[in-house]
Structures are given as structure tokens and as C-alpha cells.
Design a protein that fits this description.
Layout: E1 2-6, E2 10-17, E3 20-28, E4 32-33, E5 36-37, H1 40-58, E6 64-69, E7 75-84, E8 90-91, H2 94-108, E9 113-125, E10 129-131, E11 138-139, E12 141-152, H3 153-165, E13 169-175, H4 176-184, H5 187-192, E14 194-199, E15 204-210, E16 213-220, H6 224-235, H7 239-249, E17 262-265, E18 274-277, H8 278-302, E19 312-315, H9 324-332, E20 336-338, H10 352-362, H11 366-376, H12 380-387, H13 402-421, H14 423-432, H15 434-441
Helix pairs in contact: 1-3, 2-11, 4-10, 6-7, 6-8, 8-9
Amino acid sequence: MVGLDIGTTSVKAVVADSGKVIGAVTTPNSGMRHGQIVDIDQTAAAISRALKGVAEKTNAKIYSVVAGIPVGMLQLETATGFASVGEQGTEVNNDDVKRAISSVIHSAVKDDRDAITFLPSRFLIDSKTEVDDPRKMIAHSLGVTGILLTAPTGPLHNIKKAIERAGYHNNFFVPTPLAISSVALNESEKTFGSVIVDLGGGVSTATVIKDGQIKYANIDLEGGSDITHDISAVLSISKNDAEQVKLDYGFADPSFASKNDKFAINSVGGNGQQMVDEVYLSEIINARLEQILTRLGKGLAKHHALKQPGGIVITGGTSLLQGIDTLTANGLNVKARIYQPDQIGMRNPIYTAAYGIINYAYKMSEVDYLVNGVIYGFGENIVEQEASKPETSKISKSIASNSETEAKEAYNRTKMSADNSSTDEKNNNKEKTNGLKDFFKKFFD
């Protein structure tokens, strides 16, 4: 499987085999500005370089990817769908679940937006019994309620076109904040509430994750490239040199720097080399960072999001600047820490999103695969196989009497009880249904 993170200043690609990362590559991207594609060809070229580079590095043949969608493009809304299962009551199968999900998408998606994913919060059997997975339960009707995530059609088309022009196919999209949370947060932090601050090259975002869902997001259209521009302008050096001195000598918090530590620069129009101390450089960096963090903090404070038990988790390329966690903690009066992947070859926060995309996709449930099958149009033969099962696998289609109805409800209650009471049995059931997941994995490298 290949995770693709298309960022403003760089494209990151991570390859995993059976969930284990085997290679990662980052390449510069000049086709985007503040998180939006402004040149499809240049973006496609960056994607191509990244994927060819990681393919060569891992000796893999890459045909398709799973790409991330940044939080700035996402819109969330609660949505409900409904599907009829059978007048006399039959076992719910994959086809029934997909029809219920399809009704959600067709009823809730607006003309100028496309569905990215749907996160079911509950299924409703016959309008009264709440379950997590309705398959194999007896029902006359099936309802589903959850969170529908959509993205604007135009920018989404540009991302798809850039991937296609690079010569690859995108299997499906993953919401980047949820991808990051899958690796950067533990279960308690995801459940009780945390803030992910992603400091990218062109955009900085703060996303509140609670109960495993996106609750609020604040986007600031400045990032690491703006810091580089400031250094370039103040010191009169090229942007390439500015980026290098930022990484080599810069601190987010000037108190970490020393006036005694100096480095040489070649200023435009200057006479020979000039010496600059780390404190001066760090003050340039700090000024822009404080502006970004202050704006993000105001949005979080307005929505009472700075009191999350999990505090703030910082990631993204700009989090490489030493002291960023201290600056954030002191500036916003919260606890803060930095996250970066710990896998060999990608111990760098720039890979957090791409690594998260891989991790999120591998952990998707079978219902999640059915959702993506509806949205992205794959897995139809699974539905056909399910629908063409022998009649003996279904409940007899006689007219339902009161006693039959009671028996069906008892059947569902018994199944739910059995699922909750025996972990071993649940694991055995998972093994029996792995065929669905194995089928969809044929779409991955």
C-alpha cells in the first residue's frame, strides 16, 4: 500500500507491506500555493518523482495510491440513510449495507461537493435496535446515521487529475486529520479530546479530535515557507539559503539560541560574507511563528477547545524547529508535545500524514471498505456474490406473525450478546469474513 501526502512545498510517499513501512521519500513541489493546486503539471511531476523514487528505493511496482485530503477542504455533517431489507425479514448482507450508505450519500451530498468518506456511528435494525455491524442480523429495514465528510468538487478534481497525470490511480481518499490521529494519538487522547497542530510548509492547521471524530478545525494560510520568506527578506539571501539556515541554525524559541553561536551568510549586494548570530535568526523565526500560533489559538479558545485533556500534539515539517513545543505550551497555556514517526528511514515529522494514511487504511473495518466501495465504485462483484447466495442462507419468506417477529428479535439479541461475550468467537468470525477485506486489498500495492 502506498500513502501519498500532497503538500504545498513537498510531496511525501510512504510504502508499506502488510502494515510495515518499507520505504519513504519526499520531493519538492512547486505546483501548489497555500494548500491549493495552482499548476496541475508541476504537481503531477512532483508526485511522479516521489512515487518513482520510493518505488526504486523499495524495489516495488506502484500502480495506485491512497491519498490524503487536508482538513481545510473538509466539510462535516450528520447524515442518515435508509434501505429496505425484506418485507418478511431477512439477514442483512453487504448489499443491504451498501444501499443504506448509498442513500446517505445521494441525499446529503451537495452539488458543488463530493463525498470523501462516511463514518457510521450506528445502524438501526427496524427503527429500534442500535448495532455497530448489522450484517447477518434479521431485519425488515436498515437505517444508518453517521458523519459524512465532503470536499469541494473543483479542488478535489485537481488532485485526482494530478495523480492521474503522474500515471497512477487513486484508490480512495483519507481525511488527513484522522490519518494523523491514528498514529499521533493514543486511544484515550482520541476519545477524551486532543488538538493536532499540523505546521506545514504552506498551511498551518489546528484540529480538535474527540470521540475519534473531527470536532473543530482552524486553518491559517501561513506556514514554514512564510518563515523562509521572512529570513530571505531580512537577511537578503536567496530562499534556498534561507531554508538551509532555518533548518541548520534556527530555533522556534529564541531563549534556546546563543549570541555566541554565529554562522556566515552571503547577502545580496554585500561585501563578502557576513556573520549572523542564532538569536537574531531565531527572533525572525519566532515573530512569524507567534503570529500563526496566536491566530490558531484564538479560534481554539473561541470554541473552548484549549482545555482538551490530551493537550496539543504538534507535527509537520515546521515542528522540526527546536523549542516549538515550549513556545506553543507557554503561548497558549496548554501542555504540548511533538510527534514524529519512529520507524527507521522516516523519523521526521514531515512523514506523519503519509504514515498516518497508511495506518488508517490498514485499520479500516469491513464496513469502512463497503463505504468506500459505494463512494469510489469498486467491490461490486462482492455485492453480487452476496446477493446470489443460496436461498438456504436466508430466512424463509413466509408471512411474519407476531411469534416470528419475537423470534427474529430474540435472534438479533442472541447474536449481539454472543458477539459481546466471547472475544475468541469474535476473532473466529473475523477470520471467516476476511475474504471481503482480502478482495479490497487487491486494489492496493
